[in-house]
What does this fold into?
Amino acid sequence: AVERHRLRKTAVACFKSSIDGRYSESAIVTHSGSSLAAIPVSSGADILRHIRRLSPQVVAVDEAFMIDGCADALIEAFRQGMSVYVSSIELSANLKTFPEMEKILSYATRVEKCAAVCVSCGDDAHLTHRPAPSLEEISVGGADTYQPLCWSCHPLANPSGEKND
It folds into this structure.
């Protein structure tokens, strides 16, 4: 959707978490290699500061769950008439909701959930699993750290291990 706005010459401001440097410090990069220039930010206040400077019509944020205050900043952008796009997971590997996502989902006018493929059974995967335990809810990592799993295969979502059909 963001690329369509750019092709139409709409003013777009893209943001990413400054702690997410997996593939690039200044671009949103998919696991398959597509990229989009983005401004690294550490807070919602950073987003608002850049929005005031850039005056975009469209704001896009990747991995919103990693940015403290992101929800309030994006709600403010929405109230100012900007189109807002958010890409993020909603649940941690421990199946806890991220506060930023809890807050912003209530304002969403459209939600599109894009499933990954469960590495265990091949079904749609809406959860992430971290095989190596960690005390941190937010820990940046890629395929080496996290695995996409479906509800039936995730050990916390389905402790019995029985396949739900």
About this structure: The radius of gyration is 17 Å.
